[in-house]
Specification:
Elements (H helix, E strand, L loop, with lengths): L2 H19 L7 H10 L5 E5 L4 E5 L3 E5 H11 L10 E7 L11 E7 L14 H14 L1 H6 L5 E13 L4 E10 L6 E9 L4 E9 L3 H13 L1 E3 L20 H6 L2 H4 L15 H18 L10
Antiparallel strand pairs: 1-2, 2-10, 3-4, 4-5, 5-9, 6-7, 7-8, 8-9
Length: 301
């Protein structure tokens, strides 16, 4: 392929990608490369939200702070900006970049709705809850499409909810079918209950990555916890707020689920952008040949 044809190929490919991202989020190849180079990866002890909790990030993972996490989620993966307002960080395998086709990541946020009572955890009919969630996701498709995002369907549990009453950690997995995607999307959810709220961790991946994420879940659960004074056991009923919902509503979507509204149950998207990610990875490889080696995660303390 001649240099001229290469240039036309890149321009044409970038035009296709720009259309997929939408008019307000167009990226050119220079901007993509700049984003990759400017991401600042961290390992070791990472405190979040003014010392609320601590991550001890091992060498096989890398952590991005709130600003870098939002850049990846919105600019590279095409998620709605409003969906990432509360994201505090992003955890991902250390041997991949956000544009690698085998990439997956865990978003981290915090809900300060109060102390979530767990008395109902072992009494929940999860099949019935799933049906309600499926209806809610279906009913929100028009709103998604009106905003320029793909419709989606909640296929079912990829792993049913499991609550550990000793550690006050909850996890489950949902399988989504996203319009236009060649494979289904996996959202693997982890919740850690605390004194005044809940740490919210969501793994974003393709369904084919479910075995890998399941195998990594124990390590992820073990690397994060609330700091002393913010733990579930530190709850003081005299001064602390109690959440308006329990574990069932937490799984379904918090207060909105408790009130039967099911509003804004957005799903983080990675797999729906798989073709775009493959295309961007190809462009990164093109840059590697013409402008030098593409940089991967460079952990910092």
């Amino acid at each position: 392929m001649t240099t001229t044809l290469k240039v036309f190929f890149i321009i044409g490919f970038m035009a296709m990608i720009s259309c997929a991202f939408g008019q307000d989020d167009q990226l050119n190849n220079v901007e993509i490369q700049k984003i990759l180079q400017n991401l600042k990866y961290k390992q070791g002890e990472v405190k979040i939200k003014d010392g609320l909790a601590t991550f001890n990030v091992p060498t096989n993972f890398a952590y991005l702070d709130a600003a870098d996490a939002k850049t990846v989620l919105v600019k590279l993966w095409g998620n709605p900006p409003a969906q990432v307002d509360d994201v505090l960080g992003l955890l991902m395998p250390a041997n991949v970049t956000p544009l690698d086709t085998n990439c997956w990541a865990v978003t981290i946020s915090y809900s300060s709705d109060g102390y979530v009572k767990d008395a109902d955890a072992n009494k929940i009919n999860y099949d019935d809850l799933l049906k309600k969630m499926q209806t809610a996701v279906h009913d929100e498709n028009k709103a998604r499409e009106d905003k320029g995002y793909p419709a989606m369907e909640l296929v079912g549990w990829a792993a049913p909810p499991h609550y550990d009453a000793t550690t006050h950690k909850l996890y489950w997995a949902k399988e989504f079918k996203v319009a236009g995607a060649s494979e289904n999307t996996l959202n693997y959810d982890i919740r850690i209950l605390g004194r005044r709220g809940v740490l919210v961790l969501t793994a974003i991946a393709g369904m084919d990555q479910m075995p890998e994420i399941e195998s990594q879940t124990p390590q992820i659960l073990g690397m994060v916890d609330f700091n002393q004074g913010n733990r579930y056991a530190d709850f003081d009923p005299k001064v602390d707020k109690v959440a308006a919902y329990g574990v069932a509503a937490l799984i379904a979507g918090g207060v909105a689920a408790k009130l039967g509204l099911f509003k804004l149950l957005w799903v983080f998207i990675l797999a729906a952008k798989k073709l775009i990610i493959i295309g961007l990875a190809a462009i990164a490889a093109w840059f590697k040949r013409f402008f030098g080696k593409r940089k991967g995660p460079t952990p910092t303390a």
